[in-house]
Amino acid sequence: MAISLTRSAADRVRSHLDKRGAGIGLRIGVTQTGCSGYSYVINYADEIAASDVVFEDKGVKVVVDPDALQLIDGTEVDFVKNGLNEAFSFRNPNISGECGCGESFNV
User: Fold this and answer.
1) Is the model's pLDDT at 102 over the cut of 60?
2) How far apart are alpha carbons 77 and 6 in whole angstroms?
3) Residues 91 and 79 sit within 8 Å (Cβ to Cβ)
4) What is the three-class DSSP state of 106?
5) Among 55, 92, 100, 107, fewest CB within 10 Å belongs to which?
6) What is the rounded distance in angstroms from the CA atom of residue 74 to the CA atom of residue 64?
7) Count of CB atoms situated within 10 Å of the CB of 3
8) For the chain, give me the number of helices (H) and strands (E)?
9) Max alpha carbon distance in the chain (Å)?
């Protein structure tokens, strides 16, 4: 079981944690929503719950709820800049389909 980060994503997380002056890593989860069933939720982690699963990649802690991990295990998180737009993107090997806008997925 693992969640990995590209160099771009790890650099972005470190940069924002430095600017915030607080936080221990990146928290990734999912919520039931969207036209395909699930949507990614990404925040900065300020604490780790006893039930959380923690990975470390490229010097960044990635914190995941165990229920979400079942849906996103093996995912690679990237940070992409395209013109004026920038966002985290996910390469999840578990998905069986995505909505047309790319905001939600199903497994």
Assistant:
1) no
2) 6
3) no
4) strand
5) 100
6) 12
7) 23
8) 2, 9
9) 40
Cα angle at 40 between 82 and 20, to 5 degrees?
70
- Residue 53 predicted with pLDDT over 60: yes
DSSP symbol at 35: T
Spatial separation of the C-alpha atoms in residues 91 and 96, rounded to whole Å: 12
* Both structure tokens of 79: 């940070």
> Superfamily assignment of 4-95 in CATH?
HesB-like domain (2.60.300.12)
Q: Locate the DSSP E strands across 20-84.
A: 25-33, 37-45, 53-57, 60-64, 76-82
Residue (of 65, 19, 20, 63) closest to 45 by Cα position: 63
Contact at 8 Å (CB) between 88 and 9? yes
Structure tokens at 39: 């949507």
The tokens for 45 are 């982690």
| pLDDT score for 94 | 83
**More reliable by pLDDT, 95 or 47:** 47
Local structure of 64: helix, strand or coil: strand
The structure tokens listed for 80 are 């992409």
